[in-house]
Known about the structure:
Elements: H1 2-26, E1 35-36, E2 39-40, E3 49-51, H2 72-79, E4 85-92, E5 95-97, E6 101-103, E7 108-115, E8 122-129, E9 137-142, H3 151-163
Antiparallel strand pairs: 1-2, 3-9, 4-7, 5-6, 7-8, 8-9
Amino acid sequence: MLLQVFIGITTGLGAMCLGMFVLKWAAPGPKGLGIANGKLNPCENSPNCVCSEDSRPAFTTERIAITEPPDPENISRKLSTLPRTTIVRLVQGPATDTTLGTIPAGAFLIHAESRSLLIGFVDDIQIVWIPGLDGLQIRSSSRAGYSDLGVNKTRISQIRSLLNQ
C-alpha cells in the first residue's frame, strides 16, 4: 500500500514537472510589447501581467515617479542587477519598430527578460519614458501560464525601489 502511494506521488510530480517544461518551451514569444498612442500596451486578460497604463484594478500599478529626465543607460544597468534579468534592447526615439511601435523623439523603451529560478519561465519587463508624461511607464508580464502568483507585481515593487536609490 505504501509503495503504491509513493509510486502515485512520484508519477504525479513527474508528470507535473514534465508539463511545466513543455509549457515553458511551447510558450509563444513576447506578447503585448511596445507602445501605442504614447503608452505601453495594457495587459491581456490573464492575471500574469501588471502595467502602469492599464486601468483595470487587477492589472494596474502606478508609474515610477521621477524628478528629472532619466538616464536610460543607468536604468538599464540597475535593471540588469536583478537576479536572472537581462536587457534585451534599449531603443531611443525617434524610432519606429514593427514590434515596439513608434517611440517619439527624446523618449526611450527598455525591454528586459527575467527568468524564474527553477524552470526558467520568461517574464518580459518594459520601461518607457516619454517627455511630457509623468514618470516612467512600466509593464511586467509572463509569457506562459495563466497566473503568476503575484511575481510580476512584486518585481515592479523591486524595480521601483531599485530606481529610487
